Amino acid sequence: MTLSPQTSPVISAIVPAYNEGQGLAIAIKTIAGTLDACESAWEIIVVDDGSHDHTFQQVQLLSALDPRIKGVALSRNFGKEAAMLAGLEQATGQAVIIIDADLQHPPDLIPDMIKQWRLGVQIVHAVKRSRKEDSFGQRTSAYVINYLISNFGGINIKNASDFKLLDREIVDIIVHQLPERERFFRGLTSWLGFSEHYLYFDVASRQGDESKWSFMSLLELAITALTSFTSLPLRIISFLGFATLILGFFVIAETLISLMNGQAVSGFATTIICLLLIGSFIMISLGIIGEYIAKIYEEVKHRPHYLIKTRVGLDTKKPH
In the chain, which ranges are E strands? Predict the structure, then answer.
């Protein structure tokens, strides 16, 4: 990696990282080499999302070798959505690329993304052609969530990823005009509209340790995605209410028929079943409503998306 005179970057690459110290140097050098081949001034901003390993120390070493490599260390793990927003707020390039630190997003796709941007496209989506590296559970949950949001939320995120190129106008809109606290980046970029282009890629093997995504973090992301872009879960409550009403009519009809035929009303088992069903419907409904209320609660607290502990190679007066 060679030093380059400081010039205003045309391309900014944002690399969210959490405990990626083992493979970060290789990933950054690979991304930097790809950007060098694009013959545009560039910067790479690594956002350390509260790592517990030597991730930020690696960023500091890389920045000392090449000032175009910069870093932000958050005070704790705020989540990938917050880390990406931190990078967007620090980026100064006319086009901004978000790419993972584990190289599962292939840097080889960057020249094609930049080419589309130079042709006038404002949002370039990198879409997964396959999910061979994901587990069966991850593939299934991703399919279900993407299907629901794409069909009921009015946006297309099927096989979408966070690997994207955004024009400066789009970055400014996301940073300054979308103040919501609970964010789903993939959905927001599709919701914006503007000129879009899709590029397809196969997910590569991870560089470094195993995936940092736990089941609970994936579940939280899925809930945020659903509650942010569709009211379908709330409509399910209405469906459950109608289902309970129909069930009640059947029970009433059975009771009346038994009485007219002079039979004793044997409703013990039926009553227990009805109570269990109705109780289940009520608890599910309360849970769904609770999720929406929780998201409202997070919004009205209006806490910052993240807190920055330290920077390297960046203006400390940059707003955050």
Answer: 11-17, 42-48, 69-74, 95-98, 123-130, 160-167, 196-202, 308-312
What distance lies between CA 44 and its chain's CA centroid? 20
Cβ contact 185:81 at 8 Å: yes
Q: Is 173:75 a contact under the CB 8 Å cutoff?
A: no
0.90 exceeded by the pTM?
A: no
Domains of the chain, by residue range, sit at 11-229+304-312, 232-301
Q: Given this structure, which CATH class describes domain 11-229+304-312?
A: alpha beta
What distance in Å separates the CA atoms of residue 97 and residue 207, rounded to the nearest whole number?
19
Q: Using CA atoms, how far apart are residues 316 and 320, in angstroms rounded to an integer?
A: 10
Tens of pLDDT along the chain (320 residues)? 444 545 667 899 999 988 888 888 899 999 999 998 887 889 999 999 888 888 888 888 998 898 999 999 998 888 888 898 999 999 988 999 999 888 888 898 999 999 999 999 999 988 887 656 556 666 666 666 666 666 665 666 666 788 899 999 999 998 888 877 777 777 778 778 788 888 888 776 655 555 555 556 656 666 666 666 666 777 777 777 777 777 777 777 776 776 677 665 565 666 776 777 777 778 778 878 877 787 777 777 777 888 888 888 877 655 54
> Residue 32 CB: number of other CB atoms within 10 A?
22
Helix (H, G, I), strand (E, B) or coil at 22: coil
Is-contact 52 82, C-beta < 8 A?
Answer: no
Q: Which of 185, 190, 15 minimizes the C-alpha distance to 91?
A: 15
User: Do 163 and 126 contact (CB within 8 A), yes or no?
Assistant: yes
